Amino acid sequence: MTMLDQRPDSQQEAANPELERRAERRESWRGFFHAVPAYAYLIAFFVLPLIIVFVFSFASRGRTGRPILDNWNLDAWTKLTEPLVSTIVGRSLFVAALNTVLCLIIGYAFAYWIATRPKQSTRTLLLILVLIPFWSNFLVRTYAWRILLDSDGYITQIGEFTGLWGRMLFTLPAVFLGLLYGFLPFMVLPLYAAIERIDWSLVEAGRDLYASGTRAFLKITLPLSRPGIIAGSILVFIPSLGAYVTPDILGGAKTTLLGNFIVTQFGAARNWPFGSALSGAILIVMVLTTILYFRSGARTL
Amino acid sequence: MEHDVASTEREAGAPGAPPEPAKPAPMTVGVVAVGLHGVTKRFGEDVIAVRNMDLEVRDGEFFSLLGPSGCGKTTTLRIIAGLDYPTDGSVQIYGEEMGLKPPNKRPVNTVFQSYALFPHMNVEDNVSFGLRMQNVDQAEVRRRTGEAIDLVRLSGMEKRRPNALSGGEQQRVALARALVNQPKVLLLDEPLGALDLKLRQAMQLELKDIQHEVGISFVYVTHDQEEALTMSDRIGVMNEGELVQVGRSEDIYESPANLFVAGFVGDMVFLPGEIAATGAVRLKGGEIVQARTTAAPGTSITLAIRPEMLDLYGERSEAPSGRNAVAGTVTRRIFLGESLYYKIDIGASGVFDVRVENVPSAKRWAVGDAVIVDFHLEAATAFAE
Amino acid sequence: MTLHEGAATGRRLDRMLTINGWLVFAFLYLPILVVIGFSFSGANNVGTWGGFSLRWYERMLGNGPLIHALQNTLWIALFSTIVATVFGTAAALSLDRYRRWVSKGTFDAVLYMPVIIPDVTMAVMLLLWFTQIGLPLGRGTIILAHIAFNISFVAIVVRARLANMDPAMEEAAADLYASRWATFRRVTLPLIMPGVLGGGLLALTLSLDDVVITSFVQGPGSTTLPVHVFGLIRRSVTPEINAVSTLMVTASMILVFASLAIQRRE
């Protein structure tokens, strides 16, 4: 297999630092070759596309909307400050942040509940029940709300009967409902993984040292579940920021979010450089968040 | 044979023992099964796991590598097995240089600390794995696998999966899986560490019997000094990557080469002091006692004495003459069943731990009693600091 | 085991958590159940019950473009899953076993980013890239795109499995005269198989479900079922969509249970 393996036994020589270094280098190459297909692929179809987004965001717009790699300018980026655009960016940030908070609050209570069921079999069963919607088609799950919120749907009828709400479809609350519904499982799973791993004797120790239930939770349980909170928040916040399907199906003209706005640039608006700049902005937020995650992950692990 | 073994040790021949006859020429020493010469292992730039180690394990011998965790004993074993490559030095098995040969090309097998039984194979398939990998023919595989399973007394469990076995049974499978290949040397990495005390003691004896039966060298890594003393023909004590002493159990226990070995193997009372004159030590409180030492007068030393070597008397006159006697007060008494442990305060000189056999003739002391601690001068060794 | 006594949850709080738990489950399941229910309704309107009927399923099976899209979807999913599973598994092995060759952070980041990146952004990236390098959009580009986002998912799942594997297993195999290949074939692969299959099923699911990326990089005639359905929903909501949705949810559920069955088998 390797050169060393084929060497006849009689030629084995005693170890020296050079031979060891060579053996180590051989191991490294072996590892490198294993990773080559995946990383070559990801470089070709992820990293380079990621770079090209930024390149095109400085290009100028051709007649068909396609970018022309000439006449480099900052037009697309300065366009981000236009009132209409900044309204959409602001709205998207607000929607993504609020959705993350809602998912976190509901998801935490939910994950905590599952993780504290005494029987392992109960926990497993409940977890499977979470996995099913997690694996189910996102489009179908969003579409389901389209039916539920329709003008003659039951939810609208209940709202109108009680006078609490009217027709929700194509409004911001409908978008929120859809996003919450769509992303909740992404929050629950990492939270559950983190909470289930907690050594409850630590909480008991806290209680033993005169911490009240609330204090024990705030000072022990919550910090210990931090990795799950961070992972879940990223898994909800970033995709929410670029959400497209949900606002497209459940929202209306007044609820345009970044995702729809970007798609428009590649469709009706025919402005690819601007679409690239918008995508680039999301990527910057994503990269920063990822770095933050690995930083904190290194601290908590 | 045993005499041969002892006399070739560098630490052999305690001071005061009759002078050894001239050492036999190296050629007459038993065949060397595993020979390490100048072996060093570095991990990265600043970690040196094994430092310039020379070691010879003889044919058919039960050799233990003993030391605290992180002393390099497991790394040494892995270097012999080929699981780690040495940075420098020569590793030979029956005279054949192993160099950087991969583990699958070496005539040794390992019993892993975690057993590392393949969970997706039953007992039989686990045991026969090595033979199948060597393309031994089927009938032979079946015969030898059966024999190995018999040897470790697991007949009837061939079809079980490892997770359906107890810890002790898993341990036996691991042993059979290694022995079935008829390795020239068997390497064992703390194989009994995960078992409870009773089972561990039973397995110690069984391992020793199996080693007798198969007749090959065992290299046994452990941090448990009692285990090493019980099982080994010879012990190598390691500390911080270095082999600090090699010898038979008695040599290691009775004539430790340095303070580390003295403290690591068995209980020991340590008292600080300095050499007053040749063979005489002055303790911190001013008492002069006689001890074995090679240190020059004026050197700061630590005096080491085994607790069971100490006797207690009520009066200096009761103690036999020609021995060391130090006056002190009983501050604590601990009943251990077979023996009693006393703590004797000897003022500025320190504290003696004294173990007295719990026999009818033994006098019992109470806390506060004034006593004389008495010991033979051969029982105390002074180590220069 | 007193494992969960220390959770120190008061009885009243626990009851509230339980109520919340079942409400969340209701929230998660009701919409799906409503869709499934209405798919069997004979009414022409999506939100009203018109008696049990299979007419929408019949209509679905007779819908040529829809069936064509379904076939596309299956081929694309199958092909991209196989490639992503092989590449992802190899990458996971490399990351777990041979750490030294590149800094951990960079490569972890490259591996994890496709997981959290919003679909739209990934779609834009790939569209720009494919048009730039002159690849004609179609089934081929869809497969390339699906592999790109699936490698990471497979690698992460397999790596979790590898992390739970005792490294001494492979050492024991080598010690027992197994060559590198035999070690991989007889010991490593069987032990990580649940992870490999689990990762593969996840990749299959994601590929079957993808809407946004596919809709960006598709070409004429290469559309997939979810993209086709998305188009239908945007135009007008018909009960036929309920039937297709039920089909897709059923497929997802089969995949979940297959995955769970594999993970449980030790």
Characterization of the model:
The complex is a heterotrimer of chains A (301), B (385) and C (266). Chain A is an all-alpha fold and 301 residues long. Chain A has one domain (81-300): Orthogonal Bundle (MetI-like fold), CATH 1.10.3720. Helices cover 74% and strands 1% of the residues of chain A. Chain A has helices spanning 3-6, 17-57, 75-78, 83-115, 120-135, 138-148, 154-162, 172-196, 200-208, 213-224, 226-241, 245-250, 258-266, 272-300; strands spanning 60-61, 67-68. Chain A has a two-stranded antiparallel sheet with strand order 1-2. In chain A, helix 4 runs antiparallel to helix 11 (226-241) and helix 13 (258-266) packs antiparallel against helix 14. Residues 1-10 of chain A have low confidence and may be disordered. By secondary structure, chain B is an alpha+beta fold. Chain B folds into 2 domains: 24-263, P-loop containing nucleotide triphosphate hydrolases (Rossmann fold, 3-Layer(aba) Sandwich); 267-384, Beta Barrel (OB fold (Dihydrolipoamide Acetyltransferase, E2P)). Chain B has 9 helices and 20 strands. Chain B has helices at residues 2-7, 73-81, 123-133, 138-151, 167-179, 197-214, 225-231, 249-254, 259-264, and strands spanning 32-43, 47-58, 62-66, 88-93, 96-97, 108-111, 185-189, 217-222, 234-239, 242-247, 269-277, 280-283, 288-290, 300-305, 311-313, 324-335, 339-345, 351-357, 370-375, 380-384. In chain B, the strands form 4 sheets. In chain B, strands 6-7-8-3-9-10 form a 6-stranded mixed beta sheet, sandwiched between helices. Chain B has a 5-stranded antiparallel beta sheet with strand order 13-12-11-14-20. Chain B has a 5-stranded antiparallel beta sheet with strand order 15-19-16-17-18, with no helix packed on it. In chain B, helix 3 (123-133) crosses helix 4 (138-151). The radius of gyration of chain B is 25 Å and the shape is elongated. Mean pLDDT of chain B is 88; it is low at 1-28. Chain C has 266 residues and is mostly helical. Chain C has 2 domains: 5-56, no CATH class; 59-264, MetI-like (MetI-like fold). In chain C, 77% of the residues lie in helices and 0% in strands. Chain C is built from 11 helices and no strands. Chain C has helices spanning 11-39, 55-61, 64-97, 104-116, 119-133, 139-163, 168-175, 180-209, 212-217, 225-235, 239-264. In chain C, helix 3 runs parallel beside helix 6 and helix 4 (104-116) packs across helix 6. The longest helix of chain C has 34 residues, at 64-97. Residues 1-8 of chain C have low confidence and may be disordered.
